[in-house]
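Entry 12.
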Amino acid sequence: MRLNPATKRLINFGSECTYLKDFIRGNLNRLQYFNQIFFEEVSRRKGTSWQSIACLTYTEIVDLLKNKQKFDKRKYFILFSEKKRAYWLINNNAKNVIRKINAYLPQESNVVKGTSASRGKIKGLVKIVRRMNDLRSEEKFVLVSPMTTPDLIPAMKKSIAIVTDEGGLTCHAAIMSRELGIPCIIGTRIATKFFKNGDTVEVDANNGIVRKI
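Predicted 3D structure (C-alpha cells):
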C-alpha cells in the first residue's frame, strides 16, 4: 500500500498505543498475582483468609504484623486511584458502591460478550484460574481468568478454550490461544465474576460470545 506520511504516523501511533495498553494490563495482572502470594502469607501467620487481609491498607497490614493493632475484619473494601492519589472506601460506603457496580452486571442474561482473539466454537466446563495453585489435575476445561501470564501456560495447554476479563489482540492469552489452536475471547470485563467453577458454557469465539448453558 502506498500510504502518505501522515497515515503512516497514525498507524504507528495506534500500534504503539495498543502495545502500551497490553503492557500496562500485563504488569497490573502480575502485580495482582504477587500481591495475592503476600496476602496468603500474612493470612497464614494470622490465621484468617487472604481476602480479609486484602481488605486492609498497607499501614494496617504492617501494624498487624508488628502486633500493634487488633485485626479488624472487613466485609467490604474498595481501593481506587484518581490522578496521583489513592483512595479507599470501607464498610457501608464501599457496600453502596459495590451495589451500584453490580447493577451493571448481567442479572438475567446468560451471555457474556468480548473480543474474539482466536476463532472457534466449543462447549465445556468452566475453571476459574488466577494462578497455578487454582489448578489440580483437571483437563478439558474452559479456562476463565482475569488475564493470563506465562506462569499459567501449563493450565492453558490443558484447556479447550480461554476467556479473560482483560486484554487486547496482542495480549498473552490472544497469542497463546492462536499458537495452541483453541478458541479465545478476551476483554469480557466480567467473566470471572459472572461464571463459576463447574458452569457449562458454549464459547463462540467466532462471534465473541460466551453463553451459559
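Annotation: The mean pLDDT is 85. The first strand starts at residue 77 and ends at 82.
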